């Protein structure tokens, strides 16, 4: 059903949003929606999805319904719209009955252009919203974070499936579904589960060229973090931790260092969370230490860095979280601390899931995340390939790209480390191997291994050097992990061949500083 245009999109962009021109696909998307076409938008975080339905809402008259997963975000979006002179409201359970009545009456009088709701609101209660919607002039439905409808996505929300029923009721109203992350299975699911009618797809490039990606060993992560933050003095950033406890500890440590930080996790009261978030957004506090509960939908353009103290569960999450950096297009840093132990912990968490199919999918995603961390190819190339995009050449703006041409001859120490592992019958983890290599005076180790020719041959170098080397050898495919209960290291065929042929071990060793910025690198 074609819509009547009351003005033109360009003017609305300028008059209501204050922007001089459209970005990327925005204009084409708005045109598609304006023709009454079901539309699916895949655009990275910060790409500018919101105006793709907000401008049509202004153009169309009548009501645009926006379905969004998080009640907590609606208020900010609605406030921003009202500030821009676009009448908008949200309905949720935190409002009193009379407040809700007031809003519905405003809608009936045609005084509100955008209504934000969470999907559960559609069919719940005595007078479900879907009945009310039938009484108003519903012109457009926007489904934000549309990947939530898919079981294959990383953030499945069963209540999103109900949107399909809404679609059936409003078969002549155009729907626009938007997401920042969707692999191939998820994409297919979005169209199917929402019941969209031969939707037109708009897939933007996922490249965020201003973000420098780095992955570094988790060992001494607090020291490395402090060095990194020292480099980012006065910058605003987010530090993600896996658990609430880690959030509290990290925030406390940083605070003790005199940094401007606040914690954010689901264990804090709503008031505190809101307050901390606001202080961060207003730049009154520079650093937010948070679980992944923080950040969805937050519109803060000058976030200069995002740190992951632990490996995220999947590339989608990593991409979305790092995508919160550099929305203003200026150089920004994404730093991830990787340890094999974290990957194992996350794998165990998945094993506890009752839904086998789901945990298999998530395990596959976890494996890809781990492979990303251990990969020696360009990080950006890996990410873009993951999202089905052909990446041109190496990006020159990630740690692996920086390290190319930075290979060092590590032949002798590699031979030492590898033969120690071999002499120990490949039965131990890296920490133990290093103790033997450095000739530990522990009675247990002396007794068991003093007779070995390799005992103590590495005592001239610090423990950290050997651990770093071990991790590098693993990342480069010379060592593999074995053992189920305790990770032990074994030599790969590649390592045996290299040792036999007496070839050199050229390895990309850590740079002096792990945290040089994009601009200075
Ligand atoms: P997304 O939902 O895709 O993460 P948003 O819609 O929140 O992104 O937009 C990200 C930022 O870009 C916001 O600050 C928004 O105001 C800004 N923005 C959107 N479109 C434009 C444009 N055409 N020109 C300039 N800035 C824009
Ligand atoms: Zn690169």
UniProtKB/TrEMBL annotation:
<keyword id="KW-0227">DNA damage</keyword>
<comment type="similarity">
    <text>Belongs to the helicase family. RecQ subfamily.</text>
</comment>
<dbReference type="GO" id="GO:0004386">
    <property type="term" value="F:helicase activity"/>
</dbReference>
<keyword id="KW-0862">Zinc</keyword>
<keyword id="KW-0347">Helicase</keyword>
<feature type="domain" description="Helicase ATP-binding">
    <location>
        <begin position="30"/>
        <end position="200"/>
    </location>
</feature>
<feature type="domain" description="Helicase C-terminal">
    <location>
        <begin position="221"/>
        <end position="370"/>
    </location>
</feature>
<keyword id="KW-0378">Hydrolase</keyword>
<keyword id="KW-0547">Nucleotide-binding</keyword>
<keyword id="KW-0413">Isomerase</keyword>
<keyword id="KW-0233">DNA recombination</keyword>
<protein>
    <recommendedName>
        <fullName>DNA helicase RecQ</fullName>
        <ecNumber>5.6.2.4</ecNumber>
    </recommendedName>
</protein>
<keyword id="KW-0067">ATP-binding</keyword>
<keyword id="KW-0238">DNA-binding</keyword>
<keyword id="KW-0234">DNA repair</keyword>
<keyword id="KW-0479">Metal-binding</keyword>
């Amino acid at each position: 059903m074609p819509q009547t245009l009351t003005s033109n999109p360009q003017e609305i962009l300028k008059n209501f949003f204050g922007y001089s021109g459209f970005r990327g696909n925005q204009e084409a998307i708005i045109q598609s929606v304006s023709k009454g076409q079901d539309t699916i938008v895949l655009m990275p975080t910060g790409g500018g999805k919101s105006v793709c339905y907000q401008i049509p809402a202004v153009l169309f008259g009548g009501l645009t319904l926006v379905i969004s997963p998080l009640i907590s975000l609606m208020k900010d979006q609605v406030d921003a719209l009202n500030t821009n002179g676009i009448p908008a409201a949200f309905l949720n359970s935190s409002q009193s009955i009379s407040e809700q009545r007031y809003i519905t009456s405003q809608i009936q009088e045609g005084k509100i252009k955008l209504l934000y709701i969470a999907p559960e609101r559609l069919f719940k209660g005595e007078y479900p919203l879907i009945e009310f919607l039938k009484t108003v002039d519903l012109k457009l439905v926007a489904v934000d974070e549309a990947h939530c409808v898919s079981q294959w996505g990383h953030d499945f929300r069963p209540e999103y499936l109900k949107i399909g029923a809404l679609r059936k009721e409003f078969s002549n109203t155009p729907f626009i579904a938007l997401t920042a992350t969707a692999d191939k299975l998820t994409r297919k699911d979005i169209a199917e589960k929402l019941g969209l009618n031969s939707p037109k797809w708009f897939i933007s490039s996922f490249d965020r060229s201003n973000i420098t990606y780095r992955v570094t060993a988790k060992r001494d992560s607090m020291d490395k973090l402090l060095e990194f933050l020292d480099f980012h003095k006065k910058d605003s950033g987010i530090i993600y931790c896996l658990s609430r406890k880690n959030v509290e500890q990290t925030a406390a440590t940083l605070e003790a260092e005199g940094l401007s930080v606040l914690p954010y996790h689901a264990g804090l009261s709503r008031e505190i969370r809101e307050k901390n978030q606001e202080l961060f957004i207003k730049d009154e506090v520079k650093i937010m230490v948070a679980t992944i509960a923080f950040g969805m939908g937050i519109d803060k353009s000058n976030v200069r860095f995002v740190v992951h103290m632990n490996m995220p569960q999947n590339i989608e999450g990593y991409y979305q979280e790092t995508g919160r950096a550099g929305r203003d297009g200026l150089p920004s840093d994404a730093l991830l601390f990787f340890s094999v132990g974290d990957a194992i912990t996350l794998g165990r968490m998945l094993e506890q899931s009752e839904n086998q199919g789901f945990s298999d999918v998530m395990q596959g995603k976890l494996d890809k995340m781990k492979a990303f961390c251990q990969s020696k190819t360009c990080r950006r190339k890996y990410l873009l390939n993951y999202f089905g995009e052909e990446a041109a050449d190496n990006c020159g703006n990630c740690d692996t790209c920086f390290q190319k041409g930075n290979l060092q001859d590590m032949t002798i120490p590699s031979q030492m480390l590898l033969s120690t592992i071999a002499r120990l019958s490949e039965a131990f983890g890296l920490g133990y191997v290093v103790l033997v290599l450095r000739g530990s005076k522990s009675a247990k180790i002396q007794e068991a291994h003093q007779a070995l020719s390799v005992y103590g041959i590495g005592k001239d170098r610090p423990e950290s050097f050997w651990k770093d080397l071990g991790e590098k050898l693993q990342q480069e495919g010379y060592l593999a992990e074995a053992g189920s209960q305790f990770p032990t290291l074994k030599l790969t065929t590649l390592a045996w061949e290299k040792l036999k042929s007496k070839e050199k071990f050229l390895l990309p060793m850590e740079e002096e500083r792990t945290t040089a910025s994009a601009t200075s690198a």
